Amino acid sequence: MIIQFPTPYPDELLYSVISRYHVRAGNVFWKHTLEDLFGKRTISASVFLPSGIGSLVQHLPKNTTLNEQIFIEKHTMYPFYTVFLPTEKAQSIYESMISDDGKKIYMQSGIMASSIQQNKYLRYCSACAEEDIATYGEMYWHRIHQLPGNLICTKHELWLEDSDVLITHSNKHAFILPTTSNCDLNGKRRITETSLIQLKNIVLQAENLLNRKYQNQPFSHFTQFYRYQLIEKGYASFKGQVKQKALNDAFYNLYSEELLKNLCIEPGATQWIANFSRKHRKSFHPYYHLLMLNFLDLDVNAAFEETSFENTPFGHPYWPCLNSTCPDYKKNVIKKVTIRRCEKTKKPIGRFTCPTCGFSYTRKGMDPNKDYCYKFSRIMDFGFLWKRELQLLLNDGLSYREIARRLGVDTNTVIKYEKKNIECEQKAKSSDR
Ligand SMILES: [Zn+2]
Ligand SMILES: [Zn+2]
User: Fold this and answer.
1) How far is the CA of 89 from the centre of ligand 1 (A)?
2) Are 127 and 142 in contact (CB under 8 A)?
3) Which pLDDT belongs to residue 430?
4) 411-432 and 383-395 helices, crossing angle to 10°
5) With 0-12 CB in 10 A as exposed, 13-18 as middle and 19+ as buried, what is 186?
6) Which ligand ends up closest to the CA of 333?
7) What is the 3-state secondary structure of 65-121?
8) If we measure between CA atoms, which residue out of 292, 222, 223, 228 comes closest to residue 254?
9) Which residues surround ligand 1, an ion (CB under 5 A)?
10) Which ligand is the nearest neighbour of the Cα of 151?
11) 388 near 356, Cβ under 8 Å?
12) pLDDT interval class at 252 (50, 70, 90)
């Protein structure tokens, strides 16, 4: 057991805390630090997803409040790399990190298979570093600065910089703290306005992945989630047929080549978008999720909400009455839509009935946009108010043409309903007798 272990700073990488221990303990060789903290020299304490955390906790001073969960969730890249994995996979990585055997971790996390390259050097923000020196008297490696790619510090809106400290994934350990000699704090690169907004959004969402706790979901959840969203946004038919070209075009229209390169994503690549919009059979790097979510005007929270993924081809209530004689004309008063499928085209057909006047119409879906709610395919019932209005106009002796104009229908409809009204009257009279 060791006597003193440094208290981790906010968002500090465990690797950084161990490096600080190494310096404070006055150890000359890394292997002595490994022996102190893990009880053995053969541990694979990698920078991002280290193992041996169970052994480390056992060697900590008795009165410590630190435990496995705090280390893994607050001081490693675990939350970022496992959030989109199914529960069993995330759990398996978690257990590997607690165990002394970390060989499988990178394979399991999908980092190796991903085309998104890991950074070569540990990274830092010059302004954060200056603040840390002022607050804590020293620098440390921030977890958030180690996301892959060429990213920014969202707090200071500066580009992150490469330090001189190599990230090694092998067992060749070197515990090195950031200092003014391996990090140049003078070169502050401000970001230009155009590259700022989108990149900042993506990085903020990535920060959410690191800092909040999301419930892992099976692949089927994301399949359903994205399918639902693509239908809602019009990039897939109601049946789920993805409009791949429209989707690709809109996606690459939104994201600049520069932004994608900063995230290590190949500009113009369409295969992953195709895979992503169909059934999820494997995990995708979090960046693909973040880009797609941002593209769909959603944040990370939405991807983990437990909701039903039932698409509504006519949007959500309420819908307007389309009877010009109704006091609720074009007001959103209809609460319910009944949907059936067109036998021929299989498209959804919604039927809407006004509670005020009984006017009832259908519309073929799905609605491409909100303004579409003022269109109808067929009138199923004109409702009692309209029929009463027709009778009043007929009684006034107006021409069929004029009545048709006032009621917004053709003259044939007026003639047809006049006959119907007469029939109804006759029926009513005969039943009175
Ligand atoms: Zn900063
Ligand atoms: Zn109405």
Assistant:
1) 33
2) no
3) 72
4) 90
5) exposed
6) 2
7) CCCHHHHHHHHCCHHHHHCCCCHHHHHHHHHHHHCCCCCCHHHHHCCCCCCCCCCCE
8) 292
9) 125, 127-128, 153, 155-156
10) 1
11) no
12) very high
Residues 410, 404: contact at Cβ < 8 Å? Answer: yes
Residue 141: what residue type?
W
Tell me how far apart the alpha carbons of residues 5 and 263 are, in angstroms, rounded to a whole number. 35
Structure-block tokens of residue 407? 């009621």
Task: Report how far apart the first and last C-alpha atoms of the chain are (Å, whole number).
Answer: 105
Q: What is the mean pLDDT of residues 152-170?
A: 89
**Cβ proximity of 41 and 77 under 8 Å:** no
Q: Which ligand is nearest to the CA of 142?
A: 1
pLDDT, tens digit (0-9, with 9 covering 90-100), for 351-375: 999 999 999 999 998 777 777 889 9
Q: 18 is written with which tokens?
A: 């161990």
356 Cα to the center of ligand 2, angstroms:
5
Q: Nearest bound ligand to CA 127?
A: 1
Which pLDDT tens digit goes with each residue over 167-193? 875 556 789 999 999 999 997 888 877
Q: How confident is the model at residue 432 (pLDDT cuts 50, 70, 90)?
A: low
Could you tell me the distance, in angstroms and rounded to a whole number, from the CA of residue 237 to the centre of ligand 1? 44
pLDDT digits (tens, 9 = 90+) for 70-114: 999 999 999 999 999 999 999 999 999 999 988 788 777 777 667
Query: What are the pLDDT digits (tens) for 111-131?
Result: 766 778 889 999 999 999 999
DSSP, collapsed to helix, strand or coil, labels residue 215 as: coil
Point out which residues pair with 334 in neighbouring strands.
Answer: 319
Q: How far is the CA of 283 from the centre of ligand 1 (A)?
A: 31
Query: Which one is predicted more confidently, 17 or 407?
Result: 17
How far away, in angstroms, is 404 Cα from ligand 2 center?
18
d(CA 91, CA 104): 13
Q: With CA atoms as reference, report the closest residue to 9 among 113, 131, 142.
A: 142
Query: How many angstroms is it from 87 CA to the middle of ligand 2?
Result: 51
**34: which residues sit within 8 A by CB, 6+ positions away?**
40, 41, 43, 45, 173
